[in-house]
Amino acid sequence: MQVLVDGSGLHPAGPDRDAASPADPVLLLRAAVDALARLDPVGLGDAAVADLTIATRHEIDRLEGCFARLARTAHRRGVGSQSGAPSTAAWLARAAGMRTGDARAAVEAGEACELLERTGGAWRNGEITSAAARTLTGARVEGHDPALAACEPDLLRLARGGDLPGLRRAAARFRNLARADGTAPRVPDGLHLSRTYGGRTVLSGDLGDLAAETVVTAVHAYTDPPADGDRRPGSQRRAEALVRICETALEHAPSGRGNRSQVTVVVDWATLTGDASGRADGQFTGPLHPHDVRRLLCDSTISRVVTGPDGLPVDTGRARRNPPPRLRRALVARDQGCRFPGCDRPPGWCDAHHVHHWADGGSTDLRNLILLCAHHHRVVHQPGWTTRFDGDRIHIRGPDGTRPP
Ligand SMILES: [Zn+2]
Ligand SMILES: [Zn+2]
Fold this sequence. Notes:
Order of helices and strands: EEHHHHHHHHHEEHHEHEEHEEHEEHEE
Bound molecules: zinc ion
Radius of gyration: 29 Å
């Protein structure tokens, strides 16, 4: 059986196709992948698993090189528009289920490999990885192709040697020199905020050097250093840093911008007091978990709109039973940082936690407030956790009734 590749995938070809169909390699490839899929790594030793993992990745890289060339060829011939798609990337997204961005990147890499033929060849031959090929072709700057082609041997030497950091630096240097005339990058900065089906939000950004330097510096500056017993992964600490940066930015946002610089939560009273599960919505994100809402409304720069049983607002305003500055200073002087056992985060990283939540009648004064860092504030608002404060000592109990270590 032969295979033809068309816009809707792979289909068996009729008997009139000649034997040397260019799609034959796909058939061979499919047989090889079938064999790989049948191979259960559970029965293999560690060394064999390691070899197989690396070797499989190696072939995937080579295939990506081949795919880039095919995608570019399809693009040049307008194969996608023949099937009615507005672009090659849109065609690949529909017909092959690719992410549009990945499809566009493949076409661009394929195009760059037409200019940098040796790079394309080395990619498909497995002499350089996909990461190296993409870094090298990513050096391209509009109007400077001859200069890049002249630099190709040097860049390729770094790529072949597996020196990815060196290659990245060299590519950046090339782009900077090429743009010394002040031309703007071809790819403008972008930031995407997308909601997932699972109710999470995914941030992805694509930044130039200077913008990235600023953002990365800020995230590092606000990231907790790893501490003994802190099992949060780096990604989680960076995410918390980003939220802290945004909270700080909102606190200092210039006035006169109205509610746009205030996070707003709409919550009905019964949900807030835990009597029922009703509306608890963020302005942009939709339904929030009631535990998160109680924590947010405990102490932060959140605006609240609390609604009664009829759905009409009964209470609006700053949810922060915001310790007034004087109270906050007294709280900082007393607690000097997070009061969770064993935590030493300084006051600047801390929220004021209402031991007895204000929605349940708790007061906003020193007898009912303790400082907790954002992480531990989240912890004590988890179901089953209790905090008690006798004016001197704080008693925190986990869900199983035990004290945290
Ligand atoms: Zn709290
Ligand atoms: Zn803490």
